Records
---
Amino acid sequence: MILKKQYIAFLPTSLFAVLIVGCTSQQAIKKPSTPVRQGSVQITQTQTIQVKPIPSIVTPKPVPQPSYNSFSDWKSDFSMRAMSSGYDASAVQRLLGSAYLNQQVISLDSGQPEFSKMPWDYADSAVSDGRVSTGKRKFSEQRSYLLGLESQYGVNAEVIAAIWGMESSYGAVTGSSHLPSALATLAYDGRRQAFAETQLLSLMTLLQRGDVSWSQLEGSWAGGMGQTQFIPDTWLKQGVDGDGNGHRNPWSTADALASTANYLSNSGWVRGLAPFYEVTLPASFDYSIVDSKQPAARWASLGVDTIADVFLDANTPMELWLPAGKDGPALLLSQNFDVIKVYNNSSSYALGVSLLGKAIAGQSGLQKSWPRYERPLSTSQVTNLQQRLTNAGYDTKGADGIVGTNTRKAFQRWQGDNGQTPDGFITQRSALSLASW
């Protein structure tokens, strides 16, 4: 992307529950050829190659959901609907016959943390000493296989390994919840009925197909299975037989890693592009354009400069993200950062995966220190802030106590109109003049 006296070029290298998306088209990006000088930064002239885009996520329209007097009533109704759709009656009865209402799943699904975590808390956990040292050992054990997956699918080997580490501690912790009960509970509870029923139907297909055995039905409370925690419907669409034994088993290391590579590739991964590049910003930088997506050459013209020597194409779209505001690291995010989020639609998760991947590969992490003196708002304080912003004309699109994109953008606009640097970072200190707690 942007760098000191370097080319902006694209160099290929050799080296939730989850949303289901599929690639249906391709778009052109640029491949570098001869560099030409533009101002103080060199940018490459380009030729067109084809790369898969990130597929758009289609949000289904809400439909009325039936209510049930009991868990038993839901099971009877779902069984009838499943069998009328062609599912084997004995498989339906066997699956649901073992399912019980799990109150812990209801609690976990509806619960919210009292305080939002700061980004460095998540990052610290992702690159803990134990997770990194185990990751390096596991990567060494699987090096040949992981590099083969990188060559085949184009997804960085260390990123595949990092997702393995984040999702199951490299296969050590795959979940102890009874999957039929967890999914049936989510369906009966109603908040995610359509999602959970889809997963149950897919799980029955996997059982009949032989990917999953009746004796191996333990996973996460949210329905994740195996070493990289695929939900059933995603595995049905993205699972790969990595070890060539004729089955696609999410608890198999080879199958899980290959399927992760396949899933990221199908979701628009661009070969040779890092998920993020750490940058410095000029003193005169206009913070109102934080979180916007611009071509690499545009960021270069604004004085945004990578800390490490990096080569990117001038036309590569990059998004500027300040995870901890103006006093923390500044990152230019590539398309691959967004691709990681198909696993978990959280920027903190994508950052954690990216940092763990770098650590496993022996690369340095972030150079700029986190502003660890900042403190988060509680859930009730965020709700209060959202209400006050909306009342002041900065619509947060609801007051749910969660600091999401709409809330950050509304706060950023308020900052710009009220003498603060508009970096969108909400803390006890930055929100003090809006507080009523």
---
Amino acid sequence: MISVTEALQIVLSTAQNFGVEELPFIKSVGRILKEELRADRDFPPFNRVSMDGIAIDYASFKKGQRSFAIEGIQAAGSVQLTLKNEQHCIEVMTGAMLPNQTNTVIRYEDLILENGVATLSVDTITKGQNIHAKGKDRKKNDVLINENTKISAAEIGVLATVGKSVVKVAKQPKVLIISTGDELVAVDEMPMDHQIRRSNVFSLVSLLERIQISSDIAHLTDDRLILKKKIEIYLQEYDVLLFSGAVSKGKFDFLPEILNELGVEKLFHKVAQRPGKPFFYGTKEDCTVFGFPGNPISTFVNCRLYFYSWYYKSVGLQSDDETAILTEKISFKPNLTYFLQVKLSYRYGHLTATPIIGNGSGDLASLVNADGFIFLPEDQTVFEKGGAYKVIRYR
């Protein structure tokens, strides 16, 4: 049995590059950018008016002039006008090009407009005010978005601004999620007294959808021959197999033995953690196998910690560790890393974690009451109130 730290190192060392694909930019939210995005021109691309009002030559104001005849109107999106008389002004709209021969914008709130003349109602203005200067934000060829950035709504706006209608992103792995066990029935079936509905597989589907991975699902009964036949095919068709169940020590937990027979290299089986100790991990050629224990909390935390970490490394995404402060003292005697369910909140600007005590790794309903897991290391038995520890969010 290996430690959580060792298990994570092994998982990360087997990360894969699935290549690059091109998508319409509007479909790329949540995906990982695989090119450096540069400005195709200055930002803004012209001296941009930032307030509705009038544009003047500041020299006239400095000479004492306070009233300006209006020569015309510079609308947003219209061709740039030129001030013909330095003692006049041009009305300007927010977003418009600053007219030639002007260098200062006075907002309407500081003016009185009568009979085609704008008169200032304030005594002080500043040369260059209310103008967003050309290139002030970024210069042409400046890097706007770095490679390996996760694309959000903010990046979508930038992609549109530079005319990037098609964008290169990391290709997603082809994933199959497999549940096992004769006790499991479909969601829309009425289970008998000895049966339960399948739920783990759908939790996994949803966890993967959060990181923009579509997955297929399959269910296999506890028949050794069928298991082996099906898995042999799956190993050739998918980049990743995620199993829920059949990796422990039960008489029908055939999975580790079958995977070995099919040439899957076992990298570890059993991790010093609770929940999720029987976790199996292995590879065969280009297929990676995650064998999660069947108890729902075990499946959930293992996917969130190990699969997410493996995926982030595979696509080049950096994930920042986050810590939270325990609000209660916790004792845990086994020499195992403890993933304790917690409710997260902010107090005085600090992230805090309040323990949610469930009824073991089979208590699926307890997930609803928590926001994540706090990572309590194996080298301690008492965790004092106020201690800060790593957290794994799922909300």
---
Amino acid sequence: MKILSKYLTTVGVASILGLSTAATAATDLTMYYPVAVGGSLTKIVDGMVDQFEAQNPDINVNAIYAGNYNDARVKALAALQSGSPAQLSVMFSIDIHELRNLEAIVAFDDVVSTNEEREWLNSFYPALMENGNADGKTWGVPFQRSTIVMYYNKDMFRAAGLDPEMPPTTWEEFISMGQKLTQKDGSGTVQQWGAMIPSTGYPYWMFGALTKQNSEVLMNQAGTETYFDKPGVVEALEYWQDLGNKHAMMPKGMIEWGTLRQNFLDEKTAIMWHSTGNLTTVKNKASFDFGVAKLPGNKELGSPTGGGNFYIFKDSTDEEKKAALKFVKFMTSAEQAAHWSKSTGYMGVGPSAYETETLKTYLKAFPPAAVARDQLTHATAELSTHEAGRVRKFLDDAIQAALTGQSSAEDALTDAQKQAERILRRYK
């Protein structure tokens, strides 16, 4: 009996240990993450992941930094096809239609299960959700989100006799001030440009600001139609052309996205339009007094939203989906969103972030950090369609052809519209 009792005890202990081991086995998550614009984003994300893992020892998150947004999408989708898929990723908010067509992602509505989780899903700024919703469901949750803002050199404004607290608010003021801010040497060579708007990298994004300011949108919500050839859209591109060709306040031709921030820091331009994601880097590196303002408007103010959303991949277990949801909730929580915004310059993705002491204190000391959030009341969705990469390329090529003088704005946009219609016809 003693031997049998000892055997049963041993078996019982082993069973208990086995159950305990199974119950505490970690869920491993792989996340692809884009690193595209300023700051030491990898260190910030790593710190947030470490904090999550400390609070959730049963979940391991492996963050793979994949380059820019396009790189992240390509690598994440390649992993899905390889049989070693990731469970989640931050990718372009505008990738939603492509990801759905590939049946690569799952709607967050199908993963949340509690009232608290549903409440969280409805806690984000509506303007940031426009590129995450389709067919009545939420497919992407905002995280690394931005609008285009206007950075300007207050010292240069003073030197030009302009009020440094009154940046341009209209297209006409933008031209007038831009011309006054453009400085030439004795030989007529420009030493300081009035303004620069980048036309490489994401020209369609910058153009989305100009069209919104002219009360136009570039596509419908379903991503099945584009409006590139509407008169108001053509007028917006003609205005962009004129800034360099007619008003001589901006360089003619192409302006590089990747070097524009440094040109601003080197005081080669008094104004730049760029992502709010550069705010913290500009704050830390500018050797001059600078300001941040909403973009100027024509018929109205306006900027497209931009940046990345969290997506959960369909090819994962229910346990992995739940763990991924828990991680996304953590990363977008009020305190973490506030920390993220202060550390990077990207906006807090919901009102609760701005109710934290972290952002209340930060905004009081550094008001420019509120500009991107405040601009959301004038925001529109970023260009997003089915086969988005091809459609964006048509528009990018049209913008660049017009800016370099290879085509008129009307001809370039008419051609882009015809090509987009050919691609999108099958999705109607």
---
Amino acid sequence: MNLLITGANRGLGLALAAEALRRGHRVLAGTRSPHDAGSKLDALRSAFPDRLSVHILDVAREEHAARLAAELAEQGVVLDGIINNAGILLGRDSPIEQLDMDQVRQTFEINLFGPMTVVKHMLPLMAHSAGGIILNISSEAGSLTNAYGGDYPYAISKTALNMFTEQLKHAVKDRGIRALSVHPGWIRTDMGGGQAPGDPRESAAGILDLAEGKTVPDCRFAFVDYLGRPMAI
């Protein structure tokens, strides 16, 4: 598979890239900082020079997605999968009375508008990719059923991302493309923190099983965890 992974330079994105390469896939790694010498992504590029390409892709800047899509189209690249992994967590402990609305806007730019922008420009590259998949990395925080107080920017952006995925699922199904929002679990990354119980490598393996079709969820809505189990909307 040809897989585009955003936010691939660290955390879950890096684990996804590494697992995909281990399985023999080609990875197009999107990152805001593709030239960080000595980075783990750079090490992966050295280990898999024929199957890993690194691309400048700040999902908050539509011109990045448009330019990359044009370059890939010119090269004749067909995408089999898009994993919208890039995300941020801001304003977690802010009560509504003190909420920084600029942080809310920034969160939506990356967590919601970013995936929408990537899909907008990359979907034409999947036009002849029957069996393709779009995976939007979401969170249990986006569940309306299990809503909790606070964490406004992140939680609300993930709820909106789930709605986007649900709409997208219906829009692309006649083209043989699947769309899922995936809760990766609480994992040990910069975002999840060192106290998290989950291993990002285990989460990445489950997400790749979804991408490959080894795990096929049986659920009404397009919101599952990394093992394909339905999540509460």
